[in-house]
Specification:
The chain is of the alpha/beta class. The protein contains twelve helices and eleven strands. It folds into two domains: 152 residues, 3-Layer(aba) Sandwich (Rossmann fold), CATH 3.40.50; 163 residues, Rossmann fold, CATH 3.40.50. A five-stranded parallel sheet has the order 8-7-6-9-10. A four-stranded parallel sheet has the order 3-2-4-5, with helices on both faces. Helix 5 links the parallel strand 4 and strand 5. Helix 1 packs across helix 12 and helix 6 packs across helix 7. The chain is globular, with a radius of gyration of 20 Å. 43% of the residues are buried. The model has no long low-confidence stretch (mean pLDDT 96). It binds phosphoric acid mono(formamide)ester. The site of phosphoric acid mono(formamide)ester has 9 residues, from helix 3. Phosphoric acid mono(formamide)ester binds next to helix 3.
């Protein structure tokens, strides 16, 4: 993959070598994300951060990543405040906004919308989630996290066992992550979901055709056994026609310390793209695991900044200029990572 100027729309764009190059660049961003050093390598550059669906970590971490590289961020956070609400097309919106920015990050509720926008854009576009379809930067940060967590136990991604739990039908993070992990050989996927919310058949077929093992089950406890990583997801209420339809599934699969201890391996990494639904009737990932050393959910969110910095540095082709533009910061920076 040729990164400079590329749109980042799908994990299917990536070869394993691209992923590993991106991860190396992400590793080099640690001193900047940890505020030990600073760079102005993107001084003068402008990011258009356009979110037409709610977001906390994707929007803020893309913005933070751009700021950490020295660039400025302009945001649209609601369709109601955009002229899309007056009937303006994605084509016209893209032609206009790409004249104001050097790169655009976009989240939109419709599958395929970000790709449609990118076709009309004059600058690179990064897909920050297009409806139930894909969330490629989340998959990259998830895989980066898996690699780091497993390597701390002396393991690699090749041959790993991963359980994905919850709404696998509408969850774009699991669609992207499963397709990205399969760049590594001999993966065992245990897909735990209600029958109605199973992983789309075409993704399961692709994983099997590429030589991976896929087990589909509704039995969470047995499905948890023998995995290196368990990746939980929220019931994607916003993708159902009514809240009542989603309520049927809420709270059906919950991981807490007792279940973890009984069914998971002592080293199983616990992940979730967040937000987790912490309402009492859902509580899909219990707070009683908050202090567990294998709970990686906040390391995932921290890693999101590194991976998104790497995406900007590669697509804007400044990754080799960062070190020579860097200096120590001059403010108090002690943090507990
Ligand atoms: N994981 C994720 O996409 O979170 P946000 O919806 O808060 O951006």
């Amino acid at each position: 993959m040729h990164f400079p100027g590329a749109h980042i729309l799908s994990v299917n764009q990536f070869e394993r070598a691209d992923v590993e190059h991106l991860f190396d660049v992400a590793d080099s961003m640690v001193p900047y994300a940890h505020r030990e050093r600073m760079t102005k390598v993107l001084d003068g550059a402008i990011l258009g951060n356009m979110f037409f669906e709610p977001s906390t970590r994707t929007r803020l971490s893309f913005g933070c990543a751009f700021n950490l590289l020295g660039g400025e961020v302009r945001e649209t956070t609601d369709i109601k405040t955009s002229s899309i609400s007056k009937g303006e097309s994605l084509y016209d919106t893209a032609r206009v906004i790409s004249g104001y920015n050097d790169i655009i990050v976009m989240r939109h509720p419709q599958a395929g919308s970000v790709a449609e926008f990118a076709r009309a854009s004059r600058v690179p576009v990064i897909n920050a989630g297009d409806g139930p379809n894909e969330h490629p930067s989340q998959a990259l940060l998830d895989l980066y996290t898996i690699r780091k967590e497993l390597s701390s136990h002396g393991q690699g991604i090749e041959g790993m066992h991963i359980a994905m739990v919850g709404d696998l039908k509408h969850g774009r993070t699991v669609h992207s992550l499963s397709q990205l992990i399969q760049l590594y050989p001999n993966i065992t996927f245990t897909l735990i979901s209600p029958t109605e919310l199973r992983m789309p058949g075409e993704i399961v077929e692709e994983l099997r055709n590429n030589g991976h093992t896929v087990i589909e089950t509704e039995d969470m406890e047995q499905g948890l056994v023998g995995n290196d990583t368990v990746y939980l997801t929220r019931i994607q209420e916003e993708r159902f026609s009514t809240k009542m339809e989603a309520d049927v599934y809420r709270g059906r699969f919950r991981l807490n310390e007792a279940i973890y201890t009984r069914y998971c391996q002592p080293s199983t990494v616990i992940m979730h793209p967040l937000p987790r639904d912490s309402r009492e009737d859902a509580n899909e990932l219990d707070n009683d695991l908050n202090q567990h050393p294998n709970l990686a959910i906040f390391r995932q969110t921290d890693n999101g900044v590194l991976v998104r910095m790497a995406l900007f540095a590669l697509t804007l082709d400044v990754w080799q200029q960062i070190e020579r533009t860097s200096r120590e910061v001059n403010w108090y920076t002690e943090r507990r990572f």
